[in-house]
Amino acid sequence: MPPDSSANIQSDRNITLKAAVLEAMFEEMKCDENVVLIGEDVGAAGGVFKQTEGLFETFGADRVIDTPISESAIFGLSVGAAMAGSRPIVEVMFGDFLTLVMDQLVNQAAKVHYMSAGGFNVPLVLRTGIGIGGSLGPQHSQSLHSWLAHIPGLKVVMPSSAADAKGLFKAAVRDNNPVIFMEDRMTYNLKEHVPTGEKIIPLASAAVKRKGVEVTIFAISRAVHTALAAAEILLEEKNISTEVVDLRTLAPLDVETIVSSVRKTGRAIVLDGGYKSFGITGEIAATIGELVFDYLDAPVMRLAAPDIPVPYSPSLESLMVPSVDQVVAKVSTMFGDSV
Amino acid sequence: MTAKLNRPQSIKLYKDMVTIRAFEEEVRKMFSAGLAPGLVHLYSGQEAVGVGTCATLDKDDYIASHHRGHGHCIAKGSDITRLFAEIIGRRPGYSLGRGGSMHIHDPETGNLGTNGIVGGSVPLATGAALSAKLRGTGQVAISFFGDGVLNQGILFESLNMAALWSLPVVFVCENNGYGEFTEIDDVTAGRPYTKRGAAFDIPADKYDGMDVLVVYDAVSKAVERARKGKGPSFLIFDTYRYSGHSVGDKQEYKDEKERQLWEARDPIQKMAKLMVKMKLATKNDLKKMDEEINSTVVAAAKVAKKMPVPGADDLARHVYAP
Amino acid sequence: MTNSLNIEQNLAILDRMLLIRRFEEMLIDLDQDHDFGHYHLYIGEEATGATVVESLIPTDLLLTTWRNHGHLLARGTNPGRMVAEILGRVDGYNKGRGGTLHLTDREAGFLSTSGLVGGAVGLAAGAGFALKQAGEGNICVVFFGDGSLEEGVVFEAMNLASLWSLPVLFMCENNNSGAISAQEGGFPSSEIAASQISDIPKSLNINSKLVDGADVAAVHTVVTEAVSNIRSGNGPVFVEAYSERWPGSRPLWPEQATGVTQVASAWDESLLTGEHKEWIIEFDPLIRFIRNQLAEGLFSKDELFDRDRKIQTQITEARAFGEASALPDPQSALDGVFAA
Ligand SMILES: Cc1ncc(C[n+]2csc(CCOP(=O)(O)OP(=O)(O)O)c2C)c(N)n1
Ligand SMILES: [Mg+2]
User: Fold this and answer.
1) In the predicted structure, residue B10 carries a pLDDT above the cut 50
2) How far does Cα A243 stand from its chain's mean position?
């Protein structure tokens, strides 16, 4: 285990998403001593996915705090600490365990600032891993971001790539609100060039990851990669020019970018790894319908996880994740006979 | 404390208790007059716990309160006019009138809020204590909670962490015998309840919560311990709520005799008698104080009632911090 | 501890322990070939599960956690179908939807198996409640680790069980002692401020016992008494069965740290060379049991080899059965989201 932080900042700037977030944590903990990391196995063990490796050695047990397995109180305690002047990063090992922190998250953290008429802030980041893959079974594979985005007062961030993850994480730590930062475990090891130095990506800003003029794919987190792969095939095989918008932050939503892309392309499909019913895909489709209906050349389409508990068996598990082929097929239907 | 009780201290304790009693009486009237919307839970009968506890604290120490929290806010030093205003939903209230009785936060006095969730504030106090410890400020946090919280898992999780990390937090359980309409003894396993704290190697004891000096002494020791970095304490105060669970509850589940027994132990009367006996005040002094407090409280209520309600533009403020 | 078990019982326990050990040794190998995701082994804790079931009747109910293989096998669950489940195949007990974390066998009395720390304990109080209502004298046993005592739901459930005298045996398998340190990639030892785990259930007025979980006779004595108390309506009992953690027990991917077990090492220590020799000699419950029972003359060495061989054959067949089982048909993905 590298004992100091410099060893963790790799000189080869193509780094993984996991390493990028770790870098962000190092930097933020270095520059603000009120930033503390709290969670199960985040300290000496360096995280069960090695996602907090080296922090304990650098910042010590006072700032990198191993906790009992008490999600509800760990999170509640972080809210109290945030109200009292600390800036906690709380880790919940699996997004599925958000169910255990729901009261403290929804009834306390999300409302404190409002209820106190601005008197108290809750500057904290709840970091958790989500997503389907690796046969973790029904209780370790859920993506519950839409639940959280439904709650006023919470910010929900879901990066798709390393550079974004780093910039967004730093913004999340500096934000004065409870921010839920969700990483799909299947993106942990995706590498990309991450600039050195301070680069903060503001929350609530979507990014156009590929420019196009005939259809927009809106996606988040891991689904962005599916969208990009589909866009390539659509161009090569069907000559369809596809724009890919990575929403990056679900709440608050960057409505401006969504709307202006649809104005340009006239077609939209929304892609998500969470459940389809009552989820973020419906929200975006409805937003488009409300604001830019007149620009649409086709109904807004959605592709998301089917409404089924995530099964363990690989043959069934893989059916839960919208595939590149499905996206290509769905987009093609939006062009009717013209393709 | 009885032995070395001095006049200013005793008067402060007495006045705070009387203020709370008078305040709650006004709240009851406001509710009956239809002025206080929603639910209000009165603290009358339990004043000794809140007052005795907060008297041991510095202004920048933290408290985290619960749904029966007006008394804590007053004892920690919040402004009664603004408290009334919040309870009847007026703009100068602590939450612009948007929180109400169960959601009063006052950063000035270190008040992390009254709370609508049973047990919800326990980890908040524990977390404030963690922050104080990490920042090395010497602050202490008090977690006030009712007997109902004895059965909430989050209390155990919080006790465990507070003990593991020697956090400067004092767990103050106000055992008024009932959770809503259910007797606590009917739903709580294991006696005495102090074992729940003791199991985590936290010093735990039970005290008379109708005697403000007993409360003061017990909490003082716990606070001192916390400030010295020796960790949490778990204190249970036996007390009684005179009114129903919330205003409007007719309390048919309580029997008359039980009420009389507790009322005979009234914390304000008890303190009054002691002060007279120790020649810290005469009956007349006390009567004058009562009258002054009453008129101050009534006047504050009157002011609050004239305060404006929040405007439509207040609705969406403070959803996110800047 | 003197052995109150008769010969048949002791032999049944021996077979169960051997079965669990050989099954899990096979799993480590199986994972090399199939990479079925993260899993948890019961090696080092077999004496507890293999003995607890001896005091139960077929209509009792059981709940367990991610560390469930031993409990199921002890209760007579088919190892072939277990392998199938672990590989996500149609013949698995959950038709491949649950995997190792959620293995259940209704026939054997198992309700849900929870992958969430503390999750099963809440359900156990409910099962106890239903059994009490039914009034047929059945009880519910819930197995969970020491870490569960850090979860609030466990206190809430124990409070209810105590309050309502529910027929629940809380079997806390404390494998914390000797847990590999967090630095080496293990879960850190559990973080409980209580100096005695049993102080916690005791504070809720639950009768609590402490027992060496690697000592078959001791477990049997304590659990038999507990079960008879519970069955006669005296409310729940909490048993803390402690064991010295198996050195191969890592949170995500176990390692074959102590090598494939050689039963002969019970009498021939020269067979042990690895760095964890001490653990095997002192703490391995299987080796300890064999050593004791040989001394008592329960069986001969030849009989032991014979039993071990039979079990190994059974495991080989189980593996083959599981591997031959098909993956579920994608068409079946929607089945069972809602009950009919
Ligand atoms: C609610 C919840 N929190 C965290 C986890 C991750 N996790 C799985 S096993 C485990 C350790 C549990 O320790 P213990 O209860 O002692 O059981 P052991 O594995 O030692 O048998 C943890 C933290 C989980 N599965 N569920
Ligand atoms: Mg354990």
Assistant:
1) yes
2) 20
